[in-house]
C-alpha cells in the first residue's frame, strides 16, 4: 500500500469531473486500499479520488474515532435526500481552513462496493455531510464554492498565509 499525494486548491485538476468505474479488478482494490491509507495518514474523515488526481468515481470515508469503520463507495448516486444541517467542514485539499456549510441532513445513496456489488447506504449527520462533500469532489466541486465571495476570499487568504508560514518554518 502507499500514501498518495493530495492535490491542494487551487490546483485546476480539482475541477475535473470523474468518470464512472467500469472495471472492478485488483487494480481498483489496490487503489481503494491506497486511498484509505492516504486518508488515515492525513487524519482525514473522507477522501475522493479526484483529490489524488485519479478521475474515477471512488470515495472513501471513516467518521469513527477509532478509525475502524472504513466505507468505500464506487459510482455513488444520491437516491433521496432530506432535511438540512449546518456543519463545520474542512478538506484535505484546503489545509488549515474550516467553514460552515449547509447540506442535507439525511441521504440515501446507491453505490457499488469494490467487487461491483450494488449497495444502498443511508447516512445522517456527519457521515451524510462527508458523503455529500466527497461526491461533490467527483463533480469538480469544492466546499468553498458554497460560501459567499467575501467569506471565501478571507479563508483562502488565511490558507495562503498559513502555507507561507509553513514554508518558512
Ligand atoms: Zn474535500
Inertia-based shape: globular
**CATH-wise, what's the superfamily?**
Peptide deformylase
Helix amount? 25-40%
- Class by SSE composition: alpha+beta
Unreliable stretches = none
Number of strands: 7
CATH architecture designation = Alpha-Beta Complex
- Rg, alpha carbons: 16 Å
Would you give the CATH topology?
Peptide Deformylase
Please give the order of strands in the largest beta sheet: 1-2-3-6-7
| Ligands bound to this protein structure | zinc ion
Described by its quaternary structure, the protein is: single chain
Number of helices: 3
Order of helices and strands: HEEEEEEEHH
Strand content: 25-35%
Give a structural overview.
By secondary structure, the protein is an alpha+beta fold. It has a single domain (12-168), classed as Alpha-Beta Complex (Peptide Deformylase), CATH 3.90.45. Helices cover 30% and strands 25% of the residues. It contains three helices and seven strands. The protein has a five-stranded antiparallel sheet. A two-stranded antiparallel ribbon has the order 4-5. A hairpin with a 5-residue loop joins strand 6 and strand 7. It is globular. The structure holds zinc ion. The site of zinc ion has 5 residues, from helix 2.
Amino acid at each position: 500500500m502507499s500514501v498518495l499525494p493530495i492535490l491542494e486548491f487551487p490546483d485546476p485538476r480539482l475541477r475535473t469531473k470523474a468518470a464512472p468505474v467500469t472495471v472492478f479488478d485488483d487494480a481498483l482494490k489496490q487503489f481503494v486500499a491506497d486511498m484509505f491509507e492516504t486518508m488515515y495518514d492525513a487524519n482525514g474523515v473522507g477522501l475522493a479520488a479526484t483529490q489524488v488526481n485519479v478521475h474515477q468515481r471512488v470515495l472513501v470515508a471513516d467518521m469513527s474515532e477509532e478509525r475502524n469503520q472504513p466505507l468505500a463507495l464506487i459510482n455513488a448516486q444520491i437516491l433521496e435526500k432530506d432535511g438540512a444541517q449546518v456543519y463545520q467542514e474542512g478538506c484535505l485539499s484546503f489545509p488549515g481552513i474550516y467553514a460552515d456549510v449547509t447540506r442535507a441532513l439525511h441521504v440515501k445513496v446507491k453505490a457499488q462496493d469494490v467487487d461491483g456489488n450494488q449497495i444502498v447506504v443511508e447516512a445522517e449527520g456527519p457521515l451524510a455531510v462527508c458523503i455529500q462533500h466527497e461526491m461533490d469532489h467527483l463533480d469538480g466541486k469544492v466546499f468553498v464554492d458554497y460560501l459567499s465571495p467575501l467569506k471565501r476570499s478571507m479563508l483562502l487568504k488565511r490558507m495562503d498565509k498559513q502555507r507561507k508560514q509553513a514554508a518558512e518554518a
